[in-house]
Amino acid sequence: MPSVFDAWETLVTGDARAVAGVRDLVENSWRRCLKTGVDPAGREAPLVCSEDRLGLRRERAEDLRGAAAPVMGDARAFLAETGTMMVLADPDGVVLDVEGDGRTRDRGEVIRLMPGADWTETASGTNAIGTALALGAPVQIHAVEHFCAGIKQWTCSAAVIRDPVDRTALGVLDISGLSGAHNAHCLALAVTAAGRIEGRIAKRDLNLRARLIEAVLSEERWPMDRLVVFDHRGRPVRIGDRARRLLKEMALDPARTGTGGAALPDWLKIEAAEPVFDAARRIGAVCVVPQGRPHLPGGARARDLTPPPICERPADPFDEVIGDSPPMIKAKATARRLAGVEVPVLLTGPTGTGKEVFARAIHRASAMGQGAFVAVNCGALARDLLATELFGYAEGAFTGARKGGMAGKFEAAHDGTLFLDEIGEMPAELQAHLLRVLEQGAVVRVGEAHERPVRVRLIAATHRDLPAEVAAGRFRADLYFRIAVTAITLPPLAERGPDIARLACHFAASAARRHGLVRHPPADEALARLATHDWPGNVRELRNVIEQATILTLADRIEAADLPATIGAGHVLRPQPAETAVSLDEAEVQAILAAATETGWNLAATARRLGIAKSTLYEKLRRHGIRRPGG
Ligand SMILES: Nc1ncnc2c1ncn2[C@@H]1O[C@H](COP(=O)(O)OP(=O)(O)OP(=O)(O)O)[C@@H](O)[C@H]1O
C-alpha cells in the first residue's frame, strides 16, 4: 500500500489518478492547492503584514484578541509541557498572536508560523488553519498531509472561532508542534479553547448590547420608533415598530439591514449609519428609516431611495438649541450668520456644552442642509483607522481591505457637512492630509493615487485651546488658520444662569415622553439646587441627572430630594417651609445674598461659594439689581 508521501508525490507530479491511502479531506485540499497554483516545494508561509498593517489587523480583531488572550494564557503550562504552541489567526488566515513553548515558537518562525503570516490554503497549502477555514470545521493535519514540503515535519490542529449569533468565522485557534510532540488531545483542546473564546465573546457582546441600548435610549434627537440600531459588528439589534413597518412596505428585510446587502438603499448600510460611542469606543450605529415613502416607485430598486433626514426638521433649526442666556443669544446669533456663508466653523468649549448640537443646527440652516451631516470623532479612533475612516481606502490598500475599496466620511459628506469632533486630537500626519483635502477640494483614498472631488462644509470642534496647541507645536498653524476662519465659543453651563432651569424642564419633558411617564416640570426647589451646581460635565451631565431623576422619582415631578446628593452640595439653599416657598428667581437672590454676606461681599469668594463664574455672578447681580448694602 503506497504511503501518504507517495500519494502526495503522485499528485504533485501531475499524475491525475486517484491517490490511495489519503484521507478524503486531505486529498480534496491538495487538489484545491494544485488548482490555485500553490508551490508544493514551498518552505514557509508568506509574511503579508508589515508592523503597521499587523497593528491595523490587530485593532480590527480587538474583540477576538481580547477574548482569546486569557484562554491562550491558561494553556501556557500545557503548551510548555507538550512542546507545542497555540496560534490565533484572523478570519483571513493571518496570524495575530502566538503563545507557548519558546523552542517550538523559534522553530515555528522558520516556517513563518508567526504574526503577520498568511496561513490560508491558497498561500501556504494544506494546513490546519487554512483547511479549517476552507471547510468551516475543526481539522487535524498530520506531518506529510501538509501540502508544502517545508511544513511536513509539523502536526497542527485547528478550530474555527465563530460569531455567537450569526456563526460567521471570526478567527481560528490552532495548536501546532513538531510531529513527535503533537498528540491526539490537541484537536480536542483546540475545539474546547475555540468554544471558550466564543463564550467570552458572547458575554462581552451582551454587555456591549446593553450599553448600546442604554446610550441610544438616552439620546433624544432620534425618533425611536423609526430607528434601526446596529451593534458594533453591523447587525441590527433593535428595530423600531414603525421602522419595521416602513421597511416591510419597502420590501426590505429588516434582518438583512446593515450587513451590506447590495439591494439595500445606501442610507440603510452600516457605513452610512451614525455611530454611537461609549467612552470613546464605537459600540454601534443607528439609522432612521424615512417616512412618507410607503412604496418604491414602480420597478425602482430599493437603492434608488434618497437618504432620509436624520430627524424631523423644525421650522427654525436653532429652536433645538435651548438657551437664551446672554452668552447663548450671542453664540446663536453668530451661528445663524455663519450658517448662511460657506466657510469652515470652529466650535470651542468644554465637553458637553453642545458643540455637536450647534454643528447640526448650522448644517440644517445652511445651503447644504438637505445633504448629509456626517460626524467623526477624531479622538475615538487610532491613527490608521481614522485615516481610512476619513479618506477611505482603495481595493488592496492592505490585506483585509474590502473588495472595491471603501469611501471615507469625506466622500459620504459630499454636498453636506462633515463634523470633525475633537479635532485637537488628530495626529500630525493626518493634519497634513486633511489640509491637502481642504485646499484641493478633493480627496485621495489611502492606497490610491487619483483625486476624487468633494464639496463639503467643514465644522470642527475641540475642547482644547487650539492656539496653545499650535504654539506647543502639536497642531499645524496652517491647518488652524484654515479651519478657524470663524469660531464660536460655547460657555460652560454654570455660566448660563437661567438656561439651567430651561434645559432641566426641557430634558424632564422629553425624558417623560420617551419613557411614557406623566411628569410635571421639576419643583422650584429642585431647580434652585440645579442652579447652584458647578456642572463640570455641562449640559450632558444635566441631561443625565434629569433623565435619571425622571425615571426614579416616585412623585409626579422631580423634587429636590430626587437629585443626587452631589448636585448643588455645599451651595444648597436653606429649605423653605411650604407656606413660604419661593420662586426660582427669589431663591437665586437669597442664595446670592447669603453667600455675599458670608464672604463679606468679596465677589470672587462669593462666586466660588456659589459654584459659578465671576462673570456669571456679575450678570446675576445686574439682572436682579442686587447691590452691596451701603454700596
Ligand atoms: N443648548 C442645548 N439644547 C439642547 N440640548 C443640548 C444643548 N446643549 C447640549 N445639549 C445636549 O447635551 C448633550 C451633549 O451635547 P453635545 O454632544 O452637543 O456636546 P459637545 O460639546 O459636542 O460634547 P463633547 O465635547 O463631549 O463632544 C447632548 O445630548 C445634547 O443633545
TrEMBL record:
Instruction: Give a yes or no for keyword Cell wall biogenesis/degradation in this entry.
Output: no
MF terms in GO:
ATP binding; sequence-specific DNA binding
Q: Give the matching InterPro entries.
A: AAA+_ATPase, AAA_lid_NorR, GAF, GAF-like_dom_sf, Homeodomain-like_sf, HTH_Fis, P-loop_NTPase, Sigma_54_int
Keyword flag ATP-binding: yes
Top-level division of the source organism's lineage? Bacteria
Q: Which PROSITE patterns match?
A: SIGMA54_INTERACT_3, SIGMA54_INTERACT_4
Q: Which residues form the Sigma-54 factor interaction domain?
A: 321-551
Q: List, alphabetically, the Pfam families matched.
A: AAA_lid_14, GAF, HTH_8, Sigma54_activat
Q: Name one GO biological process term.
A: phosphorelay signal transduction system
Task: For this UniProt record, give its keywords in alphabetical order, as a comma-separated list.
Answer: Activator, ATP-binding, DNA-binding, Nucleotide-binding, Transcription, Transcription regulation, Two-component regulatory system
**Protein name stated in the entry:** Fis family GAF modulated sigma54 specific transcriptional regulator
This protein's species is: Tistrella mobilis (strain KA081020-065)
